[in-house]
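Weekly puzzle thread! Below is a chain. First person to post its structure in token form gets bragging rights.
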Amino acid sequence: MDNAGYVSLTRQAGLLKELQTVANNVANISTAGYRRQGVVFSEYVKSASEQSPSLSFADANGRLTDPTEGALSKTGGTFDFAIEGNGFFQLQTPNGIRLTRAGAFTPNAAGELVSSDGFRLLDTGGAPIMIPPDAAHVALARDGTLSANGAPIAKVGIVQPRNRRDLIREGGVLFKSASGLEPVETPSIFQGFLESSNVNPVTEMARLIEVQRSYELGQKFLDREDARIRNVIRTLGG
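Winning reply:
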């Protein structure tokens, strides 16, 4: 394969990654707490030789998470929480503390508030939040203070990464921070609400079509290049 083929292949590989990413965004339009992800393209330029022009290869290994907040959707659920502004909920997972904006929780058999995946929600001290079995009324204040039957029982821990650029996505709505965490001093939390996905369906669908067409054009070019090389081989071989 000549240089044109190799350059086209790197572009196709990048477009395929972007196509998969955009398709995943579209699939999570209705996922609470989901944040749109994009692909970051970079260019590598290499000089072939002193007599030959340089080659430009594409790379699409970077990922970018859109920090834009999703709209708050009212559910009325006692254990549905939504953060307004900066911050993430802390979840205890088998791999350590992970962050999320998906605030749909429910008490497990032990009375601990857990996510839909069964990960425990942590308070400001890093301990699981327990709901008393006799709690008839559970209320959440805007600062994260959780009360049962009028008595405070815990304060939901809202944190943020020290460096937002070090936020790494793990799964659909889970993140980890490579730079450590710091508390949000004045969090704003709503009870009975969930943060919707920040994916714009119109924009994502338009991008999906655009990337798909670009990929198809690249594939046609590779097919023509393959046919050209085969013709050259047949001609020289004959």
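Puzzle host: Confirmed. Bonus trivia for everyone else. The chain has two domains: 3-67+199-237, 72-193.
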